[in-house]
Structure formats: structure tokens, C-alpha cells
């Protein structure tokens, strides 16, 4: 997620995405429940797809 976040061309978007990823990992670093960990992994996968979609270059018309 960090790698994909760094592909935003706009500095503010890039730094916001990097900060959100870092904060989410720090916030959840002590989670021990396997079900909750799986839910967080699934959320991270959805977020990664959003980041990838937003980073795709828009076709020029």
C-alpha cells in the first residue's frame, strides 16, 4: 500500500495516503484476534484497490 500510495502525482494526495497507511498499521499493531486480523486484511485489500484505481492515468480525449 505504501508503494502504491507514493505514485500519486499530487504531493498532498501522496502524503495523505502514506500517512493513512502508516497510521492504520500503527493503530492495529497489537490486534491478536484472528477474525479481526482477517477483517483488517480484507479492508486493506479494498483500500489498495481504491488507491490503484485512483492512480491510474486518465485517458486523454
UniProtKB/TrEMBL annotation:
<dbReference type="InterPro" id="IPR045297">
    <property type="entry name" value="Complex1_LYR_LYRM4"/>
</dbReference>
<comment type="similarity">
    <text>Belongs to the complex I LYR family.</text>
</comment>
<feature type="domain" description="Complex 1 LYR protein">
    <location>
        <begin position="1"/>
        <end position="49"/>
    </location>
</feature>
<protein>
    <submittedName>
        <fullName>LYR motif-containing protein 4</fullName>
    </submittedName>
</protein>
<dbReference type="InterPro" id="IPR051522">
    <property type="entry name" value="ISC_assembly_LYR"/>
</dbReference>
<dbReference type="InterPro" id="IPR008011">
    <property type="entry name" value="Complex1_LYR_dom"/>
</dbReference>
<dbReference type="Pfam" id="PF05347">
    <property type="entry name" value="Complex1_LYR"/>
</dbReference>
Amino acid at each position: 500500500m505504501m508503494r502504491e500510495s507514493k505514485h500519486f502525482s499530487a504531493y498532498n494526495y501522496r502524503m495523505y495516503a502514506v500517512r493513512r497507511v502508516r497510521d492504520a498499521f500503527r493503530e492495529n499493531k497489537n490486534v491478536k484476534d484472528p477474525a479481526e486480523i482477517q477483517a483488517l486484511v480484507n479492508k486493506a485489500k479494498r483500500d489498495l484497490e481504491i488507491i490503484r484505481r485512483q492512480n491510474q492515468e486518465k485517458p486523454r480525449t
